[in-house]
Amino acid sequence: MRSKLIIYLGIVVVEIACSYAGFREGVYVFKPLIMLSLLFWRRDYLKTHPWLWVGMWFGLGGDVFLMFGGANMFMAGLGSFLVMQVFYIVAFQKTPSSAGKQYLKVNWWKLALPFALYGLIFLTILHTPMVLSPKNQGLWIPVVAYSICLCSMGVAAAFRFKSVSSTSFNWVLVGAILFILSDSGIALNKFLSPFEASTLFVMSTYAAAQWLIVWGISKK
What is the pTM of this model? Predict the structure, then answer.
Protein backbone atom coordinates (compact mmCIF):
# COMPACT_ATOMS: atom_id res chain seq x y z
CA MET A 1 0.00 0.00 0.00
CA ARG A 2 2.95 2.32 0.58
CA SER A 3 3.76 2.63 -3.13
CA LYS A 4 0.12 3.40 -3.89
CA LEU A 5 0.10 6.08 -1.20
CA ILE A 6 3.21 7.69 -2.75
CA ILE A 7 1.56 7.69 -6.20
CA TYR A 8 -1.64 9.09 -4.69
CA LEU A 9 0.22 11.88 -2.90
CA GLY A 10 2.02 12.68 -6.15
CA ILE A 11 -1.28 13.04 -8.00
CA VAL A 12 -2.65 15.35 -5.30
CA VAL A 13 0.48 17.52 -5.15
CA VAL A 14 0.61 17.91 -8.94
CA GLU A 15 -3.12 18.79 -9.07
CA ILE A 16 -2.69 21.49 -6.42
CA ALA A 17 0.44 22.83 -8.13
CA CYS A 18 -1.37 22.99 -11.50
CA SER A 19 -4.24 24.86 -9.89
CA TYR A 20 -2.00 27.52 -8.35
CA ALA A 21 0.02 27.81 -11.57
CA GLY A 22 -3.16 28.41 -13.55
CA PHE A 23 -2.47 25.34 -15.68
CA ARG A 24 -6.09 24.31 -16.19
CA GLU A 25 -5.26 21.42 -18.53
CA GLY A 26 -3.21 19.85 -15.75
CA VAL A 27 -6.11 20.22 -13.31
CA TYR A 28 -8.45 18.58 -15.84
CA VAL A 29 -6.13 15.56 -15.94
CA PHE A 30 -5.01 15.19 -12.32
CA LYS A 31 -8.12 16.13 -10.35
CA PRO A 32 -10.20 13.22 -11.73
CA LEU A 33 -7.21 10.94 -11.15
CA ILE A 34 -7.63 11.33 -7.39
CA MET A 35 -10.85 9.30 -7.36
CA LEU A 36 -9.99 7.26 -10.44
CA SER A 37 -6.84 5.92 -8.78
CA LEU A 38 -8.82 4.84 -5.72
CA LEU A 39 -11.50 3.27 -7.90
CA PHE A 40 -8.84 1.33 -9.81
CA TRP A 41 -6.99 0.17 -6.70
CA ARG A 42 -10.19 -0.82 -4.91
CA ARG A 43 -12.14 -2.23 -7.83
CA ASP A 44 -12.77 -5.30 -5.65
CA TYR A 45 -15.21 -3.08 -3.75
CA LEU A 46 -17.72 -3.60 -6.56
CA LYS A 47 -18.30 -6.98 -4.87
CA THR A 48 -17.20 -6.40 -1.29
CA HIS A 49 -18.39 -2.82 -0.66
CA PRO A 50 -20.70 -1.96 -3.60
CA TRP A 51 -22.37 1.05 -1.93
CA LEU A 52 -19.03 2.70 -1.28
CA TRP A 53 -17.80 1.86 -4.78
CA VAL A 54 -20.83 3.44 -6.46
CA GLY A 55 -20.55 6.46 -4.16
CA MET A 56 -16.94 6.94 -5.28
CA TRP A 57 -18.13 7.24 -8.88
CA PHE A 58 -20.51 10.02 -7.90
CA GLY A 59 -17.57 11.67 -6.10
CA LEU A 60 -15.64 11.52 -9.35
CA GLY A 61 -18.60 13.15 -11.10
CA GLY A 62 -18.67 15.91 -8.49
CA ASP A 63 -14.96 16.55 -8.98
CA VAL A 64 -15.45 16.89 -12.73
CA PHE A 65 -18.44 19.24 -12.43
CA LEU A 66 -16.69 21.50 -9.92
CA MET A 67 -13.69 21.93 -12.22
CA PHE A 68 -15.85 24.19 -14.35
CA GLY A 69 -17.28 27.55 -13.28
CA GLY A 70 -20.88 28.68 -13.23
CA ALA A 71 -23.94 28.10 -11.08
CA ASN A 72 -25.16 25.16 -13.15
CA MET A 73 -21.89 23.26 -12.77
CA PHE A 74 -21.83 24.04 -9.05
CA MET A 75 -25.36 22.67 -8.64
CA ALA A 76 -24.45 19.58 -10.65
CA GLY A 77 -21.38 19.04 -8.47
CA LEU A 78 -23.41 19.60 -5.30
CA GLY A 79 -26.00 17.08 -6.47
CA SER A 80 -23.38 14.52 -7.38
CA PHE A 81 -21.66 14.83 -4.02
CA LEU A 82 -25.01 14.67 -2.22
CA VAL A 83 -25.70 11.30 -3.84
CA MET A 84 -22.16 10.27 -2.89
CA GLN A 85 -22.92 11.10 0.76
CA VAL A 86 -26.06 8.95 0.65
CA PHE A 87 -24.11 5.97 -0.68
CA TYR A 88 -21.37 6.52 1.91
CA ILE A 89 -23.96 6.61 4.70
CA VAL A 90 -25.36 3.28 3.54
CA ALA A 91 -21.84 1.87 3.16
CA PHE A 92 -21.04 2.81 6.78
CA GLN A 93 -24.08 0.93 8.09
CA LYS A 94 -23.10 -2.21 9.93
CA THR A 95 -25.05 -4.48 12.23
CA PRO A 96 -23.74 -3.39 15.63
CA SER A 97 -21.93 -5.90 17.78
CA SER A 98 -23.37 -6.55 21.23
CA ALA A 99 -20.91 -4.00 22.64
CA GLY A 100 -21.81 -1.54 19.89
CA LYS A 101 -25.55 -1.97 20.47
CA GLN A 102 -25.18 -1.42 24.19
CA TYR A 103 -23.04 1.69 23.72
CA LEU A 104 -25.30 3.24 21.04
CA LYS A 105 -28.42 2.60 23.08
CA VAL A 106 -27.15 4.87 25.84
CA ASN A 107 -24.62 7.17 24.16
CA TRP A 108 -25.85 7.66 20.58
CA TRP A 109 -26.42 11.35 21.22
CA LYS A 110 -22.78 11.84 22.28
CA LEU A 111 -21.67 10.61 18.85
CA ALA A 112 -24.27 12.61 16.91
CA LEU A 113 -24.21 15.89 18.87
CA PRO A 114 -20.83 17.26 17.65
CA PHE A 115 -21.87 16.87 14.01
CA ALA A 116 -25.32 18.38 14.63
CA LEU A 117 -23.80 21.39 16.42
CA TYR A 118 -21.20 21.87 13.72
CA GLY A 119 -23.83 21.79 10.98
CA LEU A 120 -26.07 24.25 12.85
CA ILE A 121 -23.24 26.71 13.54
CA PHE A 122 -21.93 26.46 9.99
CA LEU A 123 -25.34 27.08 8.40
CA THR A 124 -25.90 30.00 10.77
CA ILE A 125 -22.64 31.56 9.57
CA LEU A 126 -23.61 31.07 5.92
CA HIS A 127 -27.25 32.13 6.19
CA THR A 128 -26.97 35.93 5.95
CA PRO A 129 -24.32 36.15 3.17
CA MET A 130 -26.16 33.53 1.13
CA VAL A 131 -29.72 34.76 1.51
CA LEU A 132 -28.87 38.43 0.95
CA SER A 133 -26.66 37.84 -2.09
CA PRO A 134 -28.51 38.02 -5.45
CA LYS A 135 -25.91 35.77 -7.13
CA ASN A 136 -26.62 33.01 -4.61
CA GLN A 137 -30.36 33.13 -5.20
CA GLY A 138 -31.90 29.68 -5.00
CA LEU A 139 -28.81 28.01 -3.51
CA TRP A 140 -29.71 28.23 0.18
CA ILE A 141 -32.10 25.26 0.31
CA PRO A 142 -29.77 22.93 -1.69
CA VAL A 143 -26.84 23.92 0.55
CA VAL A 144 -28.91 23.21 3.69
CA ALA A 145 -29.95 19.82 2.32
CA TYR A 146 -26.36 18.98 1.41
CA SER A 147 -25.05 20.10 4.82
CA ILE A 148 -27.56 17.87 6.61
CA CYS A 149 -26.57 14.92 4.43
CA LEU A 150 -22.86 15.65 4.91
CA CYS A 151 -23.13 15.79 8.70
CA SER A 152 -25.29 12.64 8.63
CA MET A 153 -22.39 10.92 6.86
CA GLY A 154 -20.19 11.92 9.79
CA VAL A 155 -22.74 10.56 12.26
CA ALA A 156 -22.92 7.27 10.32
CA ALA A 157 -19.13 6.99 10.58
CA ALA A 158 -19.26 7.68 14.32
CA PHE A 159 -21.99 5.07 14.84
CA ARG A 160 -19.52 2.35 13.77
CA PHE A 161 -17.94 2.69 17.22
CA LYS A 162 -17.36 -0.67 18.93
CA SER A 163 -18.79 -2.52 15.90
CA VAL A 164 -15.59 -2.53 13.84
CA SER A 165 -11.89 -2.64 14.64
CA SER A 166 -10.42 0.49 16.20
CA THR A 167 -8.24 1.00 13.11
CA SER A 168 -11.20 0.91 10.74
CA PHE A 169 -13.27 3.12 13.02
CA ASN A 170 -10.54 5.73 13.46
CA TRP A 171 -9.58 5.90 9.79
CA VAL A 172 -13.14 6.23 8.54
CA LEU A 173 -14.18 8.71 11.25
CA VAL A 174 -11.17 10.97 10.63
CA GLY A 175 -11.82 10.67 6.90
CA ALA A 176 -15.46 11.70 7.39
CA ILE A 177 -14.42 14.70 9.50
CA LEU A 178 -11.86 15.79 6.90
CA PHE A 179 -14.51 15.42 4.20
CA ILE A 180 -16.80 17.75 6.17
CA LEU A 181 -13.97 20.26 6.60
CA SER A 182 -13.11 20.11 2.90
CA ASP A 183 -16.67 20.85 1.81
CA SER A 184 -16.89 23.56 4.47
CA GLY A 185 -13.84 25.19 2.89
CA ILE A 186 -15.55 25.17 -0.51
CA ALA A 187 -18.65 26.83 0.95
CA LEU A 188 -16.72 29.46 2.91
CA ASN A 189 -14.60 30.33 -0.10
CA LYS A 190 -17.63 30.60 -2.39
CA PHE A 191 -20.29 32.15 -0.18
CA LEU A 192 -18.54 33.96 2.68
CA SER A 193 -15.05 35.18 1.91
CA PRO A 194 -12.57 33.86 -0.68
CA PHE A 195 -9.21 32.96 0.86
CA GLU A 196 -5.88 32.42 -0.82
CA ALA A 197 -5.18 28.95 0.57
CA SER A 198 -8.60 27.58 -0.33
CA THR A 199 -7.32 25.22 -3.02
CA LEU A 200 -4.60 23.81 -0.77
CA PHE A 201 -6.97 23.39 2.15
CA VAL A 202 -9.88 21.95 0.19
CA MET A 203 -7.90 19.52 -1.95
CA SER A 204 -5.54 18.30 0.78
CA THR A 205 -8.37 17.57 3.23
CA TYR A 206 -10.52 16.05 0.47
CA ALA A 207 -7.76 13.75 -0.78
CA ALA A 208 -6.86 12.67 2.75
CA ALA A 209 -10.54 12.05 3.50
CA GLN A 210 -11.06 9.81 0.50
CA TRP A 211 -7.91 7.81 1.15
CA LEU A 212 -8.80 7.22 4.82
CA ILE A 213 -12.41 6.29 4.09
CA VAL A 214 -11.70 4.05 1.10
CA TRP A 215 -8.83 2.14 2.71
CA GLY A 216 -10.17 2.32 6.28
CA ILE A 217 -13.50 0.69 5.48
CA SER A 218 -11.80 -2.69 4.96
CA LYS A 219 -9.39 -2.57 7.92
CA LYS A 220 -9.85 -5.56 10.17
Answer: 0.95
